[in-house]
Design brief:
- Catalyzes the synthesis of GMP from XMP.
- This is GMP synthase [glutamine-hydrolyzing].
- Pathway: Purine metabolism; GMP biosynthesis; GMP from XMP (L-Gln route): step 1/1.
- It is an enzyme of class 6 (ligase).
- Helix content is 32%, strand content 24%.
- The protein is of the alpha/beta class.
- The longest helix has 20 residues.
- The protein has a nine-stranded mixed β-sheet with strand order 2-1-3-4-9-8-7-5-6, sandwiched between helices. A five-stranded parallel β-sheet has the order 12-11-10-13-14, with helices on both faces. Strands 15, 16, 17 and 18 form a four-stranded mixed β-sheet that branches.
- The protein is globular, with a radius of gyration of 26 Å.
- The chain folds into three domains: 188 residues, Rossmann fold (3-Layer(aba) Sandwich); 189 residues, Rossmann fold, CATH 3.40.50; 96 residues, GMP Synthetase, Chain A, domain 3 (2-Layer Sandwich).
- Bound molecules: xanthosine-5'-monophosphate.
- Xanthosine-5'-monophosphate (XMP) binds next to loops.
- Xanthosine-5'-monophosphate binds next to loops.
Length: 513
């Protein structure tokens, strides 16, 4: 396995993605948490130093632990990682006038193990750069492999020690073949086997779960989403009926969702399932509440209460399973200090483990989202479930701006179902990150037949995104939108006007609240 030391680059996670795509397990650790002991315990076959926002030319900037260069394993420094490696090994780095941001070209001077079979010496290759500083004197033992206009030491190597440094970012897709360079490092240079697949992960995890759980009972909360579903099915494979799933219906789910969960888990997988319809409880607690954050707090709090009530029905429960993913586990490297501003309090069910006082089992905590999907496929979960659009914990409550009611939730569920049905019919579901309807607290005048109508406005939202951090509205054709609008207005009582939201994120957010 490979250790990735994070110096705070925006794209460190992509390094991990590329290494894992090569079939090699890797972990990201913040530079200030890596020390001799942790490295010895992790026993990596190779180390990658990430980029980062700091400048090596200033005092007090982050360094890799010196012991890392004495372990006898290959090291690849990327951007800031290259610069700190050079500085720590006796070379030097300067701030230059010639900054390179974006596309740049490398002139390959000499052969190198890192690009064997990918690039040819003598050729010119496109890469993606983002740097102000650059290396200007090499430590002993290093040679220049390639240069760019702005970086005379853009690609360096010390073959004897197997230390490599690149000023460009091989992990981003804007560096064509960058993934192959990282694969060469992990497989060719470090000698990793490249056999870390989802099938292998499944087997190891099942053994680990059995060892952790023993003969105790486990409770797993289901949300209807991909992560908790995959966690539940994996756990069930490992420990069978020692697992009980709990599904709380807060009355703000999409059309047919509660039934689908019951059908899949109880009927198809035969997993013991406690399904609790708590709609009345949630809807009455939300009565008259219009502040988005208060809605989230009320739903989050009640969810924990109801879940706890149901969980207590499981005798001798010793563990709580959660579908925590790797991006939630990676400790971020912060230079700015100070907490970031809360835009929305997404951790709507945070606090559950503390309240239940149960040991946690988190079988997905090493995985990225697309790896969870691959594992779901490996476990035979239906494609529809695996490819599902994300759905927020507070559900339709944050898609009904203003006070929520059972009637409004019903109206919205119908409109949303029609919209999604049309998206599926047009074959667009998988091209969209998330699509949903929003019921506005605004009434407008319309005419149907010979009568005046005075009903709600429904807004449609559809976005493309990679991780939900940024998003763009989906460019439907007009004919498609008209078709959806006509169907919603004709089939859903209570809506007489449909609009499409074309706001990107930022400055908008994906949800309306
Ligand atoms: P925003 O609206 O912040 O959404 O652009 C980004 C992603 O997060 C989801 N989201 C939530 N998920 N609880 C959740 O579990 C929440 O309170 C919440 N608010 C937004 C949203 O659906 C999108 O995928």
């Amino acid at each position: 396995r490979i250790l990735i030391v994070d110096f705070g680059s925006q794209v460190t996670q992509l390094i991990a993605r590329r290494v894992r795509e090569a079939g090699v397990y890797c972990e990201i650790q913040p530079f200030n948490k890596v020390d001799d002991r942790s490295m010895a315990a992790f026993a990596p076959r190779g180390v990658i130093l990430s980029g980062g926002p700091a400048s090596v030319t200033e005092a007090e900037t982050p360094r890799a632990p010196d012991a890392l260069f004495a372990m006898g394993v290959p090291v690849l420094g990327i951007c800031y990682g290259q610069q700190t490696m050079v500085a720590q090994l006796g070379g030097s780095v300067t701030a230059s006038d010639h900054q390179e941001f974006g596309r740049a070209f490398l002139d390959l001077k000499e052969p190198c193990a890192l690009f064997e079979g990918v690039w040819e010496p003598g050729s010119r290759e496109q890469v993606w750069m983002s740097h102000g500083d650059h290396v200007d004197r090499l430590p002993e033992g290093f040679r220049v492999v390639a240069q760019s206009d702005g970086a005379p030491f853009a690609f360096i190597a010390d073959d004897a020690r197997r230390f490599y440094g690149v000023q460009f970012h091989p992990e981003v897709t804007h560096t064509p073949h960058g993934g192959q360079l990282l694969r060469n490092f992990a497989l060719g240079v470090c000698g990793c086997a490249g056999d870390w697949t989802m099938a292998a992960f499944r087997d190891t995890k099942i053994a680990e779960i059995r060892a952790q759980v023993g003969d105790r009972r486990v409770i797993c909360g289901l949300s209807g989403g991909v992560d908790s579903s995959v966690a539940a099915v994996l756990l069930h494979e490992a420990i069978g009926d020692q697992l009980t799933c709990v599904f709380v219906d807060h009355g703000l789910l999409r059309a047919g969702e509660a039934e689908q969960v019951e059908r899949l888990f109880r009927d198809h997988y035969n997993i013991p399932l406690i399904a609790r319809d708590a709609s009345d409880l949630f809807l009455s607690a939300l009565n008259g509440v219009d502040d988005p954050e208060r809605k989230r707090k009320i739903i989050g709090g009640l969810f924990i209460d109801v879940f706890q009530e149901e969980a207590q029905k499981v005798e001798n429960a010793g563990l709580l399973a959660q579908g925590t993913l790797y991006p939630d586990v990676i400790e971020s490297v912060s230079f700015a200090g100070g907490p970031s501003v809360t835009i929305k309090s997404h951790h709507n069910v945070g606090g559950l483990p503390e309240r239940l006082n149960l040991e946690l089992v988190e079988p997905l905590r090493e995985l990225f989202k697309d790896e969870v999907r691959a594992l779901g496929r490996e476990l035979g979960l239906p494609e529809r479930m695996i490819g599902r659009h994300p759905f927020p914990g507070p559900g339709l409550a944050i898609r009904i701006p203003g006070p929520v009611s059972a009637d409004k939730a019903d109206i919205l569920r119908k409109a949303d179902a029609i919209y999604l049905e049309e998206i599926e019919k047009a074959g667009l579901y998988d091209a969209i990150w998330q699509a949903f309807a929003v019921l506005l607290p605004v009434k407008t005048v319309g005419v149907m037949g010979d009568s005046r109508t005075y009903d709600h406005v429904c807004a449609l939202r559809a976005v493309t995104a990679v991780d939900g951090m940024t998003a763009d509205s989906y460019p439907f054709d007009h004919a498609f939108l008209s078709q959806v609008a006509t169907r919603i207005i004709n089939e859903v009582r209570g809506i007489n006007r449909v609009v499409y939201d074309v706001t990107s994120k930022p400055p908008g957010t994906i949800e309306w609240e």
